[in-house]
Amino acid sequence: MTQAGSAVWFARHESRLAWRDFVSMMTAGRRTRARKIAIGFAVFVIIMHAIAYLVVGGYAAAPVDQQLLIGVTASLLLSWLLMISQAMESMTRAFYTRADLDLILASPVAAERLFAVRIGTVALSVAGMALPLAGPFINMLAWRGGAHWLGAYGVIPAMGATAAAFAVLATAALFRLIGPKRTRFVAQIIAAIIGAAFVIGLQVAAILSYGTLSQASVLHSDALLALMPGEDSVLWWPARAHRPAGAGICRACRRYLDCRAALWRLRGGRGQRRCRTLGPRAASERFAGRITAARTAPQGMDSAAPRSLAALADADADALSPAAGADAVAEFCRAVSRRRA
Amino acid sequence: MTGSPPLALEIHGLVKHFTRPAVDGLDLAVRCGEFYALLGPNGAGKTTTLRMIAGLIQPDAGSIRVDGVDALDDPVAAKRLIAWVSDEPMIYDKLTPEEYLDFVAGLWAVEPKLAASRAGELFDWLGLAAHARERCEGFSKGMRQKVALAGALVHDPRLIILDEPLTGLDAGSARQVKSVLRERVLAGGTVIMTTHILEVAERMADRIGVIAHGRLLAEGTLAELRRLAAGADVNEGAADLASLEDTFLALVADAALPAEAA
Fold it and tell me: Is B64 in contact with B53 (CB distance < 8 Å)?
């Protein structure tokens, strides 16, 4: 039994209201209409898949180059801006139009739980509304180009969450700057501007630079290509969400191990004192144990043990991290490649 | 030695400014088991005062104590004792009265079985038993008001705050609401109500407070207010015949004169 007043309890309450509102909106209280709605939705899904096949089917197996990354990223950016627009509109509705706030805020329950649930609901609804539009395209890409394209589904909830987070920040900032009364109106205007800005911006750039209404001319232009970072840039990570995980994970592991090395250096002073207490043999056993766990040969560690303990941590932290990190990551990548083969 | 009766509500120096002072140094004391009516012209600060007591607005200055609990220091403890019903109460259209009361009981952490038992009694009392499992979206204003009142009472509050609870109700619904409130007071609860229907205040209130320009102008029983409005040199019999409307208008007019002169 869910505890009353908890976040889960609020989530159930909100879900019940949202579901009943949705069913009521769709069916207008008539059961026969539900069947028609279901059939209509199925037809919509089929048509969307057909459109998706015609639009992106040919690109499924295309090589990943900068042009493709720019195109995908631009599409994601447009979608994200539209999601922000929708999230801001939903946020103002959730916090202004929902007249039950008087009831809930006058109760002893912690209001943060309710607001957390409502913000989460906005994120879910924003992502949920993007799925029927994006899903067919992802499905067609997966069908034509491989199951790895299904990784793109993970991008949608991430975009929904970030859009909701941005909407909350923007709404809170407006609240502080201009007060609650004007926030609702201004937030809705900003939401509309954000939603249209990217498209209008591309259109303006196309007209001014190339004398055409085609937004693609801007996205495929050499000028834009020259401005964009290389294919390894973090800017393209959302567009690369569909790529095999191994390469990205290897890079992430290497970054993690580099961070650990930096921390190791910072803690070098403490490490020195521990070494003095435990003795050189214990230190080399500890380091050797870690390196062994990373499947790296502990060559050279025994010869390091008798050295001055004062310099042990610094020197060996530099030596160990790349050795442990590089070898461990290499072993991991080999394992991934063997599985893929 | 007899002590003063316990106070359900104490307000000292309450202040709230929006673009102008809405509440300007209000002092108010309501005894336990009392039916207190707060009257005032539009813009007097009645609703703002009630919303500050309910914890919906933070005052700029002053103190509020509910049954001895400092509502500003410990708002959660104070809210446990209070029920708030606004002039346009919100009930969920897509919930049934049963579900609504279950939700409100959950907000106040009332044990489910106890909440269900109280809900049944309240539905019977307010004539909602036949509609307890119908969605509220088809309800009239009177029925919605009764559902909101049932929700306010399901957690057995010590202090019930009502903002214009009878506005828009037909005679039958208004009678039921008045009956429930009267019973509540007889059972030891305290009710603070704002109303524009002076007859209700006249018939139901133990004490009446008249507020204008964010301050309490006068307070007391109906008889005390009549004498106050009439002045000391007026015949007592004549003062007692004055209606609450005349009394109220006289008091508010007196308060308006210095403001106009300024």
Answer: yes
B-chain residues within 8 Å CB-CB of A114?
none
Q: Comparing C-alpha atoms, which of A195, A10, A23, A24 is closest to residue A121? A: A10
Cβ–Cβ gap A108/B103 under 8 Å = no
Number of residues assigned to chain A: 341
What is the strand order of the sheet B61-66 is part of? B21-31, B7-17, B61-66, B69-70
**How many angstroms separate the Cα of A65 from the Cα of each of A220, A247, B58, B71, B150?**
12, 16, 57, 63, 65
Residue B31 counted as domain residue? yes
Report the phi/psi class of residue A299: left, alpha or beta, with left for phi > 0 and alpha for psi in -120 to 50.
beta
Sort A176 into a burial class: Cβ within 10 Å, 0-12 / 13-18 / 19+.
exposed
A102 contact residues in B (CB cutoff 8 A): 56, 84, 86, 90
Closest-CA distance, A42 to chain B, in angstroms, reads 27
**Distance, CA of A318 to CA of A195 (rounded, Å):** 49
Task: Give the C-alpha separation, B217 to B133, whole Å.
Answer: 46
Comparing A87 with A215, the larger pLDDT belongs to A87
The reply to whether residue A17 touches residue B55, judged by beta carbons under 8 angstroms, is no
> With an 8 Å Cβ cutoff, are A100 and B90 in contact?
yes
Domain assignment of residue B2, yes or no:
no
- Residue A327 — pLDDT band, cuts 50, 70, 90? very low
Tell me, yes or no, if B114 comes closer than 8 A to chain A by beta carbon: no
Name chain B contacts of A9, Cβ cutoff 8 Å. 106
Decide if B190 is inside a domain.
yes
Which residue among B86, B108, B112 places its CB closest to the CB of A107? B108
Contacts of A10 in chain B (CB under 8 A): none
The gap from C-alpha B63 to its chain's centroid, in whole angstroms, comes to: 18
CATH number, domain of B152, equals 3.40.50.300
Q: Give me the helices (H) in chain A, please.
A: 7-27, 31-56, 66-92, 101-105, 111-145, 155-210, 216-219, 222-227, 245-266, 268-278, 280-293, 301-304, 309-340
User: Structurally, how many domains does chain B consist of?
Assistant: 1
For the cut 90, the answer to whether the pLDDT of residue B75 exceeds it is yes
Tens-place pLDDT, residues B104-157:
999 999 999 999 999 999 999 888 999 999 999 989 888 999 999 999 999 999
| Alpha-carbon gap, residue A38 to A25, rounded angstroms | 13
- How far is A149 from A29, CA to CA, in rounded Å? 40
User: Which candidate from B90, B104, B112 shows the least CB-CB separation from A102?
Assistant: B90
- pTM attached to this predicted model: 0.70
Instruction: List Cβ neighbours of A151 (8 Å cut-off, separation of 6 or more).
Output: A241, A242, A243, A245
